Amino acid sequence: MIFLRRETFRQYLRFYPVTSAVLAIIVVVFLAMELLGSSTSNGTLIDFGAMYSLAGETHEWWRYLNSMFLHIGFQHLLFNAFAIYVFAAPLERLLGSWHYAIFFLISGFAGNAFSMLFSEPPFISAGASGAIYGIYAAYLYLALFHKHILDEGTRKTVTMILVMGFISSIIIPNVSLYGHLGGFLGGFVYFAVLTRRFSRRRRG
Predict the structure, then answer these.
(1) What interhelical angle do 74-83 and 129-145 show, nearest 10?
(2) Residue 38 CB-half CA count within 13 A
(3) Are 186 and 30 in contact, with CB atoms under 8 Å apart?
(4) How many CB atoms lie within 10 A of CB 79?
């Protein structure tokens, strides 16, 4: 099972620098939001760069990236931080830090773009869930097309998480189904492109 984290703190920082940086950023930003207002305040969220939609409003492009590092309330932060800590680390190791950083940003961007395209205004959204679902999508791609890379326990875990995640995205209020779906699709497509590029380089 590749999702069992046995590293010491120092080993984790050394093996997974991008994942460690993301975790540090989301915690620091959360604390800053709480100190300067509240992470559950719409005004504070918008000031810090959350995605939002109001009639006649246009969006600054940077919100599509910035909002993935914001979280609405401690429970939201804790859930996403745990998912990143456990599930992102093996993917960073597999892709390499540079490719993983781009993958994370593209997945999160895709999730926010889907939210903006398909969610009914008015709404406000923030969080790393789009990027996290992109990570899940990468593992699903491996489970479908490169089964030898993942053990059976890992494949079952990924399938269970995705099924439960999308069901909860539908039935639980104030959860961005489109953000999750966009991050998943963006991550799946980009990971497919990366793996094919890596395969061509090996053959060459």
Answers:
(1) 30
(2) 4
(3) no
(4) 16
- Mean pLDDT, rounded, of the chain: 91
Distance of alpha carbon 31 from alpha carbon 19, whole angstroms: 19
**DSSP H helices in the chain:** 9-15, 17-36, 42-48, 63-66, 74-83, 89-95, 97-118, 129-145, 152-171, 177-203
**Active site positions, annotated:** 129, 180
Amino acid at 146: H
Which residues are CB-neighbours of 124 under 8 A, at least 6 positions away? 42, 45, 46, 50, 51, 52, 53
Query: pLDDT below 50 — which residues of the chain?
Result: none
> Which residues neighbour 173 within 8 Å (Cβ) at sequence distance 6 or greater?
none
E strand or H helix at 4: none
Rounded Cα gap, residues 36 and 70, in angstroms:
14
Would you state the pLDDT for residue 188?
A: 97
**Distance from chain centroid for Cα 24:** 15
Check residue 56 and give its pLDDT: 57
pLDDT value for 202: 55
Q: Environment class of residue 122 by beta-carbon count within 10 Å: exposed (0-12), middle (13-18) or buried (19+)?
A: exposed
- Which pLDDT belongs to residue 135? 97
- Best CA proximity match to 92, nearest among 197, 17, 26: 17
Write down the pTM of the prediction: 0.93
